[in-house]
Q: What sequence folds into this?
């Protein structure tokens, strides 16, 4: 009896799907991605769309240099460059992403860095000036709280080593 390879939750934009705020994808071209795709491991999902946000949409950042945990604790909001508060949509999308990942049996998530939703190494500071700081977005925070290990798009080798060790 052969076992199914472990599924990897992945930000849909990294698969090239045009779901980002600017209506574009940001495909991650790497032999590991191609291998995991051919093995049927990758499960693409966009938390921001799942939360009800349109594509394209105004850029959004977590305010005041805060992070996803701060948003979930009610200490920070996710604001659009236009001033619109999209905190609820980001939280809802993150919760749906976690539920989807769990339904698919994903123990790991490969998320695009910089996003106020999926960032796991860095996010932008809320000033819309291009300044960024170490931190993680709302979905990344929810994934971590749910016990799903989060890797950024810059950590493919670390993710590969993790998968090799855990299946």
A:
């Amino acid at each position: 009896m052969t076992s199914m390879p472990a599924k990897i939750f992945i930000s849909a934009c990294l698969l090239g799907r045009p779901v980002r705020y600017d209506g574009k994808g940001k495909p991650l071209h790497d032999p590991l991605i191609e291998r995991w795709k051919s093995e049927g491991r990758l499960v693409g999902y966009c938390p921001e769309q799942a939360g009800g946000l349109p594509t394209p949409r105004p850029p959004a950042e977590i305010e005041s240099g805060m992070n996803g945990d701060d948003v979930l604790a009610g200490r920070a909001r996710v604001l659009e460059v236009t001033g619109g508060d999209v905190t609820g949509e980001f939280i809802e999308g993150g919760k749906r992403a976690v539920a989807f990942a769990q339904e698919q049996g994903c123990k790991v998530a490969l998320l695009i860095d910089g996003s106020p939703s999926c960032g796991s190494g860095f996010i932008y500071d809320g000033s819309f000036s291009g300044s960024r700081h170490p931190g993680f977005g709302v979905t990344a925070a929810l994934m971590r709280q749910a016990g799903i290990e989060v890797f950024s798009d810059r950590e493919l080798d670390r993710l590969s080593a993790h998968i090799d060790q855990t299946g």
